[in-house]
Amino acid sequence: MEYDFRKIENKWQKYWAENKIYKVEINDKPKYYVLDMFPYPSGAGLHVGHPLGYIASDIFSRYKRLCGFNVLHPMGYDAYGLPAEQYAIQTGQHPSITTETNINRYRNQLDKIGFCFDWDREVRTCDPKYYKWTQWTFIKMFNSYYCNQAQQARPISELIEVFAQQGTRNLDLACSKQMQFTAEEWNLKNEKEQQEILLNYRIAYLADTTVNWCSALGTVLANDEVSEGLSIRGGYPVEQKIMKQWSLRVSAYAQRLLDDLEKLDWSESLKETQRNWIGRSEGAEVNFYIENLNTELPVFTTRADTVFGVTFMVLAPESEYVDKLTTDNQKQAVAQYLERTKHRTERERIADKSITGVFTGSYAINPVKGNKIPIWISDYVLAGYGTGMIMAVPAHDSRDYAFAKHFDLPVIPLIEGCDVSVESFDAKDGIMINSGFLNGLTVSQAIETAKKYIEENGIGKRKVNYRLRDAIFSRQRYWGEPFPVYYKQEMPYTLNEDKLPLELPEIDKFLPAETGEPPLGRAKNWQTAEGYPLELSTMPGFAGSSAYYLRYMDPHNDNRLVSAEANQYWRNVDLYVGGTEHATGHLIYSRFWNKFLFDCGLIVENEPFKKLVNQGMIQGRSNFVYRVKGTNRFVSLGLKDKYDTTEIHVDVNIVKNDILDIDRFTKWMPEFNDAEFILEDGKYICGYAIEKMSKSMYNVVNPDVIVDSYGADTLRMYEMFLGPIEQSKPWDTNGIDGVYRFLRRFWALYFDRDGNFNMSDEKANQQELKCLHKTIKKIQTDIENFSFNTSVSAFMICVNELMSLKCNKREILEPLVIILSPFAPHIAEELWHLCGHATSVCDAVFPKYNEEFLTENTFEYPVSFNGKMRFKKELPLTFTVKQVEEAIITDDTTQKWLDGKTPKKVIVVVGKIVNVVI
RNA sequence: GCCUUGGUGGUGGAAUUGGUAGACACGCGGGACUUAAAAUCCCGUGAGCAGUAAUGCUUGUGCGGGUUCAAGUCCCGCCCGAGGUACCA
Asked: Which value, to the nearest 10 degrees, does the dihedral of the CA atoms of residues A594, A584, A39, A571 take?
């Protein structure tokens, strides 16, 4: 019987769906949770790169299930997003319709690949039943503060009580800006004033913040949504602007996010990316006395040792101290400078590195040296980092150096023997000079000594700074979760939980309102029953994706985010598979979100994703044809140098193994109808290039096309065979035939010459058993190591061997079906049923290998030695002492190493590798 | 600049973690079957040299050194690619 993959795949996909084979419930087996990053359903549908990670996780899920685990492997959709909204703006079609259509298309494509998802647990972030819990968590965050002493989020009600009793005394709280007040002061404040203060401590808070404003998109963006001054989506310019926005106090969790990375089984590079993003730096906050303000201002430095070399101070243009420090005669110059920097976008600032700045007119006093130093303003200092002001040490910081040279400020070298006439000396080694009590120390000693001095003399304190900022949580868009927030006396209050979900209202147009308000400004009656106005912004994309993994545990629960029982059982994700592009976005937010819920005692695990595997990107492999200029003649790749040609992208779907299907090409586009061809060896060979997979390059390969012509099992195995899962690689169908052939050969093992299903019950011999057990062992270790490309090879070797042995024995072939089933579930299911089983192959048990069949021939040799060696000559399966001796002696290096001694015990494995013992 | 990764045939990629480098697959060459093609199957395939041949020898994992009986793998110094990050004080 022929291997009819269409028939087989349709049959079993239907069977799986109808019988809910992959439905999971809590039971008494051990659990295993495998999660894919859920997709944003874009209009373009899935391309061949998307399923790569899904296939890997599917194989793993199926394998774990065969090993006796109760495997949770759900799927859903990250359904809020900009493309649907932009499409809505252009066409007027409601984003929910676009989203629904796209989801259906995705589902259709996913179903064809034969995944073992439990679709009963599907979630969509735009579903009110789902986002009810996103809003609910937001309310929790609004009603919490972060206690630095306990390193934990706590209810805000607790803080209100403390304020009423002791004010801010003895408190160490995460906040937007340091505040100090007594209980009396607190108690005298009115409701609005108290609410204002509380916003400074809430984990979800509303505040004036410097934000990335993208006017082309009409919304603010988070740091991870901006790269090099351009928005990641769309590539529009982004500028810095101060706006009142919702933020999440992620920075409070910086240290925990950093520390807990240690426990995670993630790739080193991903952890490193997160460490960089969190950006912990240890240093000190040093107070500088400001003469004309009669006050002290702190600056942050990691180089406290260089305090004797401070020759000026620099303030960020956005700093709140700019006004206070500007003296009357500098007012105009400063105003001019601010005007200029304000209108520069982030991108311009990066592109144009010319040095700019202006003197404020004020001076500070060096706390160790007592001299007067001028205070400048420059945009090379960032308002959002440290205190927005720096002490400049031009001799040992290249940026300060450039500034000093440009404005002709003094440079004082602090390290013995360094030459600062042309550039600064940034390295942290050498012996200190010109530095008072630090003279003669090494730099690292000096840093420590200086910090100690600063603390002991009340000049400042040790301080740890983080680069990680709070996440801006408002978006001026329509297609997102509404905030469960209303305003009373201009202060935000959250809705009662029983009002949730607060559903997204209908609006007539999806553009911002004429008033300049976000789109929700167009909604009618967007207010509470009492008539208080509701928040007009919506939440960003990461709101819905931060805790979706919890919702899968208990997706239909309307009373809890997740029941204690379900959470106790499923705990957290054992294996998370997805792209590395989420390293500084989703994967930080999700960890933060999870830790917050953990602090609230709502969930049992403090990290969401134990093990994480990043699948590589699949790039496109474009094909080209070469048109002779000014004609409609096309010349094959090998001959193109003889002509003057233009390179034209050609649809990769009409090219096979770089050979152009001429017939289809002429029909592809009208202009090619009468094309002529200059062939080589009767074929038209196309050129190729590796590029991003995109429509405009005609290199998008749709998985449906592959499934149609080769079947889902071939697609699955081929995607795995392509190379290591973490590696990026171009999609290249050149090898797919090999995998297809393998499956057909595999199929043929189970059928006799006449095409009848045929297995014998005869006992397997040693060789057949070895072949099987070798394969079981290899596949098992490969799956556990996520090395799927080598697994596919192992199957190929196994089948080739069994074919040459003409093996048709049940004892061998039946276990083989089971170990193949994670990779090619359809063909395995068919064969499993043909073997006479009534239940699905996924309920079988992964066979155990027997080491006995794998090792042979242990041989005792009468002399002494220690170490490892190998034979140059291969030994036969059975051999004599003499043969061993000969084998050893023929090997020069071994002989040299033996140095006249003779081994005592020689262990031979499969005639090859030998352990030799003294 | 800093951090993280990689660099192996014509191509994608293997290598039990220090033990016959190039598994498996593609491609290519040769053959069988066929009227023919497709499909299928078999043989060969890193490079170089010698031989009628089985085979033998030399060389070979980005470059240069080192450790070791033995290095793609470990150590030192470079070169190149990919990704992350960057006026972060």
From this structure: -20
- β-bridge pairing A204-214 and A152-155: unpaired
List of A residues 241-270 with CB within 7 A of strand B: 268-269
- How far apart CA A326 and CA A331 sit, in angstroms, is 6
User: What beta strand segments (E) does A774-840 contain?
Assistant: none
A577, A615 in Cβ contact below 8 A? yes
Residue closest to sugar C1' of B5 by CA: A269
A376: nearest Cα among A334, A329, A340: A334
| A465 CB closer than 7 A to any strand B atom | yes
Write b or e for each residue in A232-245: b if 16 or more Cβ atoms lie within 10 A of its Cβ, otherwise e.
beeeeebbbbeeeb
Instruction: Yes or no: say if A108 and A532 are a contact pair by the CB < 8 Å rule.
Output: no
By C1' distance from the Cα of A224, the closest nucleotide is B85
Instruction: Kindly report, residue by residue over A473-488, the tens digit of the pLDDT.
Output: 998 889 999 999 999 9
pLDDT at residue A855, as a whole number? 59
Residue with tokens 């002696």: A889
Distance of CA A546 to the CA centre of its chain: 12
Torsion angle in degrees (nearest 10) through CA of A14, A701, A793, A758: 30
* Beta-strand relationship, A226-227 and A358-365: unpaired
List strand B contacts in A 744-773 (CB < 7 A).
744-745
Kindly list the distances between the CA atom of residue A177 and the CA atoms of A158, A199, A201, A325, in Å, as whole numbers in the listed order: 20, 10, 9, 20
Cross-strand bridge partners of residue A290: A295, A364
Buried-state track A136-171, b at ≥16 Cβ within 10 A, e below 16: bbbbbbbbbbbbeeeebbbebeebbebbeeebbeeb
Whether A349 CB is under 7 Å from strand B: yes
Distance CA A614, CA A750 (A): 37
Q: Residue A224 gets which letter from DSSP?
A: G
Find which nucleotide's C1' atom is closest to A585's CA: B84
Contact A634, A626 (CB under 8 A): yes
What are A57-66's pLDDT values in tens digits?
999 999 999 9
What is the complex's ipTM, to 2 decimals?
A: 0.92
Closest CA to A725 of A665, A792, A658: A792
What's the CA gap between A81 and A76, in Å, rounded? 15
For residues A623 and A317, is the Cβ–Cβ distance under 8 A?
no
- Say how far apart CA A244 and CA A266 lie, in whole Å: 36
A834: which 2 tokens?
A: 């043909």
Strands A372-377 and A312-315: parallel
Using CA atoms, how far apart are residues A89 and A66, in angstroms rounded to an integer? 49
Q: What is the 3-state secondary structure (H, E, C) of A838-903?
A: CCCHHHCCCCCCCHHHCCCCEEECCCCCCEEEECCCCCCCCCCHHHHHHHHHHCHHHHHHHCCCCC
Residue A349 has pLDDT above 80, yes or no: no
Q: Which helix (H) or strand (E) holds A104?
A: helix A95-111
| Lowest-pLDDT choice from A407-421, A647-661, A764-778 | A647-661
Place of tokens 């499923």: A570
CB-based contact A856:A909 (threshold 8 Å): yes
Nucleotides of B under 7 A from a protein CB: 3-5, 12-16, 18-20, 23-27, 39-42, 69-70, 82-89
- A659: which residues sit within 8 A by CB, 6+ positions away? A683, A684, A685, A686
pLDDT band at A346 (very low <50, low <70, confident <90, very high): low
Q: What region does A658 belong to: left with phi over 0, alpha with psi -120 to 50, or beta?
A: left
Query: Rounded to a whole number, what is the largest CA-CA distance in chain A?
Result: 103
Distance CA A33, CA A118 (A): 12
Using alpha carbons, list the distances in angstroms from residue A181 to A149, A158, A185, A552: 19, 17, 6, 45
Nearest to A485 by CA among A528, A522, A530, A519: A528
